[in-house]
UniProtKB/TrEMBL annotation:
This is Aminopeptidase N. Residues 550-874 form the Peptidase M1 alanyl aminopeptidase C-terminal domain. Residues 225-439 form the Peptidase M1 membrane alanine aminopeptidase domain. It comes from Paraperlucidibaca wandonensis. Its cofactor is Zn(2+). InterPro entries: Aminopeptidase_N-like_N, Aminopeptidase_N-like_N_sf, PepN_Ig-like_sf, Peptidase_M1, Peptidase_M1_dom, Peptidase_M1_pepN, Peptidase_M1_pepN_C, Peptidase_M1_pepN_C_sf.
């Protein structure tokens, strides 16, 4: 069943208050609800009270004290309708649910003794009969009753207003949330948890209690999340004027969780992987993820909770904006450049591919079957890029005026994308009608725009004429319209950056906005023919078509003042060389066996040693050549073997001249120093990890010895993980023993064990498929834990192209079989994994046939609506 944005209708009844009572009883749970409804002013004469309910055992229903019977209402699919609600009244219901049997991890579920909820987007209807839609907001009062011994901790949103003991060893707690909220932000947690407490004093002097709840054994892994939370709270006050609004802020770590984390009002529920961090068990990447996710969920308190979404088509309104906010925050905590290039590489690798494949959709889609399938890279990451373009276009101050206006105007309301754009325009004195309709195109048109670049330099008058042309993907259903595209650019001459004039303004950098299909600009005082440094810091999420020669790109790598663009030039050059070589392999061109000169290798050789000392993070990034996933998006026909071989060959050419530089880097032994979380320390470790990987390609014996040394002396997981990955992925001597020792040392730590599984499942060799079969049979493999499933099956399908795209189709067969089993328990998890097949149209005919056979097999059987939607969209 397809739901359309154009069919949106306001609810006939508003909800003034919600009163919930949970009896958590071992085998089942009884939920009683009292809902006070009022007919909406806008409701038609024949108003109907419509609630939603799924998988509920309905025990009783009463309307303003009168018991109702099944004849009084209609209940079809998930929709429960009652025509007798008149001007309004109180609906009282009682239902029974089974949290222990809930393996979908949506609604209320219990795993390893811990009760918790996940309601976004439509999980609340699995808890009780309710107007489960984001535009119905109410205050909540929730009472939880449970066994005191097994569930000493009872939590819900807001403030705890009363607690007490009852008979039979049970106890209860009542929570009140004064801020009206939609049901997707409801949360309940009950179990045996330890807590780390701290506090935060807001800008206006309110003291907020901060609490992080985890299993007792994980209490020593909460400091980083706590510090991140405090930093995020301060940052949001300073950068956005957003202050926290309750007396308490709680985070709970949960081991069985479908996503990263959830911003429930005052009670965030987190995947353990996004909250726990300790130097002994967590890598640098893990620490950074915790910081970013803690901030992301906190920022939702304003962009999501205080101002929420009218309907799920507006999901990007809270997610895109909040991702942009968390990216800004992370840039302020560590290195802004590294943050930006990681975000951009991620977007270009995964979101571009999504937007070019069968799962492409608009940032604000017009229709969907299963909303859970739309928590996508397009909504999150491309949505964030749109917010960033507005920030670039309006300037930091202008953007802040817009966000102030937005938060103030829509506080307590459920908004739409137009409201956000309207605030940006109004607060900056712009023509709102024109602004909204122009920027809305970014939200409505799927596909990545292409910008073509043409420049002509006239020596005699020292003028450069730049012409930019934009074309939209033909995927957009209606006729695509031109988008507003901010272009930050500079000019790089033979000795470095040039200053130029545009409309009388002389500067090293200019901001243009391409609005028409084609536009030209004239720059004066251009004293030599420059190389254009375009889309600095990736000022717009577009593909750029420009005729750069190898020497031009090399010039940018050497001389651009914009570090991001130095990196992106190296990425572009690497991509060009790898694709050319792969093409030669494919066509059987013999010259391919004598690798040609690499302009990339020459440019990197020239700058790398100096860069490794002055900017080690950037030096590290320059040696991480584009992944196969990125490259596959750049080609029309994807041949994983040829690409892999070409990539290895170019990498070797780049690394070979650096042998002694790598030695210098590794001699510093930064990896063996005690753990410090800082941009500088992370950069030093990252360049050493990359150097070790490089050395493994040149001198495997020396690399193995260093890896063993790190494993033995490692003061933290960043060193241990880098060493293990190098040994395993390069199949160095001692790899198997290292894996065994690592397992023995860490088998009691689930998150480290996930890494152990993931390292093996992502080893880029064909034999990995057999290894994965063995891992699936390992006693520590548990298919009911999403993190474990992602560590093995997800890594294999999404992060191991060589093994997944086995020419005989055995990789596809393995995934299809697992998918079916997982789907029966956890549709959201399965549907996400199914996305791995989205690449099929780019593969050769034989691989296509293998995938299609699997897809048709799956589609002809029993599937959840989530997975069915994803697979049928992929199938086309
Ligand atoms: N709102 C959460 C976040 O981005 C994620 C919720 C994901 N929900 C889902 N059904 N996939 O912070
Ligand atoms: Zn979010």
């Amino acid at each position: 069943k397809i739901i359309y944005l154009k069919d949106y209708q306001a609810p006939h009844y508003t909800l003034e208050h919600t009163e919930l009572h949970f009896e958590l009883l071992g085998d089942y749970t009884e939920v009683s609800a009292e809902l006070r409804f009022k007919r909406a002013l806008t409701a038609p004469k024949e108003a109907v009270l419509t609630l939603l309910g799924a998988d509920l055992e309905l025990l009783s229903v009463a309307w303003s004290g009168q018991l109702l019977s099944a004849n009084d209402w209609q209940w079809q699919d998930e929709k429960w309708q009652f025509a007798g609600a008149g001007e309004g009244g109180v609906l009282s219901t009682k239902v029974r649910i089974y949290p222990d049997q809930n393996l979908a991890l949506e609604g209320l579920y219990r795993s390893h003794g811990l009760y918790c909820t996940q309601c976004e987007a439509e999980g609340f209807r699995k808890i009780t009969l309710y107007p489960d839609r984001p535009d119905v907001l109410s205050t909540f009062r929730t009472t939880i009753v449970a066994d005191k011994a097994s569930c000493p901790v009872l939590l819900s949103n807001g403030n705890c207003v009363a607690t007490g003991d009852s008979e039979n060893g049970r106890h209860w707690a009542t929570w009140e949330d004064p801020h009206p909220k939609p049901s997707y932000l409801f949360a309940l947690v009950a179990g045996d948890l330890a807590v780390l407490r701290d506090s935060f004093t807001t800008v206006s002097g309110r003291e907020v209690a901060l609490e992080i709840y985890t299993a007792e054994v994980d209490q020593d892994k909460c400091d980083h999340a706590m510090r991140s939370l405090q930093a995020a709270m301060r940052w949001d006050e300073e950068r956005y004027g957003c202050e926290y609004d309750l007396d308490r802020y709680m985070i709970v770590a949960v081991s069985h969780f479908n996503m990263g984390a959830m911003e429930n009002k005052g009670l965030n529920v987190f995947n353990t992987s996004c909250v726990l961090a300790h130097p002994a068990t967590t890598t640098d990447a893990g620490f950074q993820r915790v910081e970013a996710v803690v901030a992301h969920e906190y920022f939702h308190n304003w962009s999501g909770n205080r101002v929420t979404c009218r309907d799920w088509f507006q999901l990007c309104l809270k997610e895109g904006f909040t991702v942009f906010r968390d990216q800004q925050f992370s840039a302020d905590q560590l290195s802004a450049v590294v943050q930006r290039l990681e975000d951009v590489a991620f977007l270009q690798t995964h979101q571009f591919a999504e937007d070019a494949g069968p799962l492409a959709h608009a940032v604000r889609p017009e229709s969907f079957v299963e909303i859970n399938n739309f928590y996508t890279l397009t909504i999150y990451e491309k949505g964030a890029e749109i917010a960033r373009m507005l920030h670039t276009f309006l300037g930091a101050d202008g953007f802040r005026r817009g966000s102030d206006h937005y938060f103030k105007t829509y506080d307590g309301q459920a908004a739409i994308v137009e409201d956000f754009l309207n605030s940006m325009a109004v607060a900056n004195g712009l023509d709102a009608g024109a602004f909204v309709s122009q920027w809305l195109r970014w939200y409505r048109q799927p596909g990545t725009p292409v910008v073509s670049v043409n420049s002509v330099w006239q020596k005699d008058i020292q003028r450069l004429t730049l012409t930019l042309t934009q074309t939209q993907s033909s995927k957009s259903s209606s006729t695509p319209e031109s988008l507003p595209i901010p272009v930050r650019l500079g000019f790089i001459g033979k000795e470095g950056e040039l200053s130029t004039s545009l409309n009388g303004v002389t500067a090293n950098e200019h901001l243009l906005v391409l609005e028409q299909a084609e536009q030209s600009w004239q720059f004066d005082d251009v004293s030599q023919v420059p190389v254009l440094s375009l889309f600095r810091d990736f000022s717009a999420p577009v593909r750029v078509k420009a005729e750069f020669g190898d020497a031009d790109l090399a010039q940018l790598i050497r001389l651009d003042s914009n570090s991001f663009n130095r990196w992106s030039a190296s990425y572009a050059l690497a991509t060009r060389e790898i694709l050319a070589l792969a093409e030669q392999y494919r066509s059987g061109d013999l010259r391919a066996h004598q690798p040609q000169e690499s302009a990339l290798a020459a440019a990197i050789a020239e700058v790398w040693s100096e860069l490794a000392a002055s900017d080690p993070a950037l030096a590290a990034k320059m040696l991480q050549l584009p992944s196969l996933a990125y490259l596959s998006d750049q080609v029309a026909c994807y041949d994983p073997e040829a690409l892999q071989r070409a990539r290895e060959s170019v990498l070797l050419q780049v690394i070979a001249p650096l042998q002694s530089a790598l030695g210098t880097v590794l001699a510093k032994q930064e990896m063996l120093k005690p753990y410090v979380y800082s941009a500088q320390a992370i950069a030093a470790r990252s360049v050493e990890a990359v150097a070790l990987d490089g050395l493994a390609r040149l001198q495997s014996g020396a690399a193995a010895a260093i890896a063993q040394h790190w494993l033995k002396e490692a003061p933290h997981m960043s060193a241990e993980q880098a060493a293990l990955t190098t040994l395993v992925h390069h199949q160095l001597p001692g790899a198997d023993d290292a894996l065994q020792a690592f397992y023995a040392r860490w088998k009691h730590e689930p998150l480290v064990l996930d890494q152990w599984f993931a390292t093996q499942a992502s080893a880029p060799q064909a034999e990995t498929r057999e290894r994965v079969e063995a891992l699936l049979a390992h006693s520590d493999f548990d298919a009911t834990v999403p993190n474990r499933v992602r560590a093995v099956i997800g890594q294999f399908a999404n992060n191991n192209p060589v093994a997944f795209h086995d020419a005989e189709g055995r990789g596809y067969g393995l995934i299809a079989k697992q998918l079916l089993a997982i789907d029966a328990r956890n549709p959201q998890l399965a549907s996400r994994l199914a996305g791995a097949f989205g690449i099929w149209q780019k593969l050769d005919e034989s691989r296509q046939a293998h995938i299609l056979r699997e897809l048709d097999g799956l589609l002809s059987g029993d599937l959840s609506s989530d997975t069915r939607e994803t697979l049928s969209r992929i199938r086309g």
